[in-house]
Amino acid sequence: MPPPRLHSAACPHIQPRKHQLRPISRLFSTSHPTQRLAIGPESPNFIHVPQSAQPDAYYRPHIKGILPTPRLIFPRPANGAEAKTSPAYLAATTPDPSERTLNAPKSKDPSTRRLVEWKAKISEHRRRNLRESLMELRERKLKTDKRLHARTASKQRMRARLLSAPTPADEKFTMASVLQSSLPSRSGLQDPDRDARIEQKRANFAAHDAMKKAERQNALHTLYMNARDFIVTEEKLTEAVEKAFDPSSKQFDNDAKRGLNIWNLGYPLTVREQLERAKKGESGRMVERLSGFRGVTDERMRRIGEELTGGKI
Fold first, then answer.
1. Are the C-beta atoms of residues 214 and 310 closer than 8 Å to each other?
2. What's the predicted TM-score (pTM) here?
3. How many CB atoms neighbour CB 31 within 10 A?
């Protein structure tokens, strides 16, 4: 039996259902309407694109420019310099107002007096801030250095313990069968000729040092012998100039006439003449060799004298 129908008169709070026709609008977008309204069409997220479940690789953005080297605030004091946290350094860096400034007559103008008082107050703040900042930075540096030294010492102790630790049992039981003599030694490679090689190195060093010392003495003696011709005074300079440009001297004379300068002795050899001279045979250079025996003999005699006397001549 069907249920009885309720009339609106019997139940005034129940209203009959009215069917209303709503316009159907089709969305031609893959994004949600609210999302599409929140994001403008110029944004790349305006159209939703599904992403993969695997996250993308982290990209570290490139930062342009180079940071300057941090300044060393507390360098190691050198040449007896005071530390930046010492009372002497603080007194020299942040000096107190002088008695002349404190005892200066005050202005009668209220605005000027307030300006002077404000400047004195700001100066006192600057001095106090500089002193406190130096002390706090010094304290921070000491804590940082202590923490760094402790971490470094801990790493060194761990490294020494790992280096001196024996081979673990699991590694020893699972490693391949290798002869004990073929295993790497922790004490280093064997070197039976180490002592002999060290003695040879010491002898070579001593010989090289002696050779350098002899060369240094020879160079000093050569400088001493050549110092006789050095021009160190105005009188010697005048004498050298007069000797070089004296017209009465015969240093520039040749077989034909007297000369006033070096050009009277002939022009210097050109590059072409030097090449032709080098290409000449033994017969072409016979005269030059015979004429140059005296110079070669003098050079040999000078070298023999230097070897006999032990110095430059």
1. no
2. 0.37
3. 16
Q: With contact defined as beta carbons under 8 Å apart, do 74 and 141 qualify?
A: yes
d(CA 217, CA 227): 15
The CA angle 8-13-14, to the nearest 5 degrees, is 55
pLDDT at 284: 60
Cα–Cα distance for residue pair 7/5, rounded to 1 Å: 6
- The Cα 215–Cα 203 span in angstroms is 18
Tell me which H or E stretch contains 264.
none
Between 270 and 26, the more confident residue is: 270
Convert the pLDDT of each residue in 38-65 to its tens digit. 788 888 888 888 888 887 778 888 889 9
Q: Which phi and psi angles does 208 have, rounded to 5°?
A: -65, -40
Q: What is the DSSP letter of 57?
A: P
Contacts of 123 (CB under 8 A, 6+ apart): 97
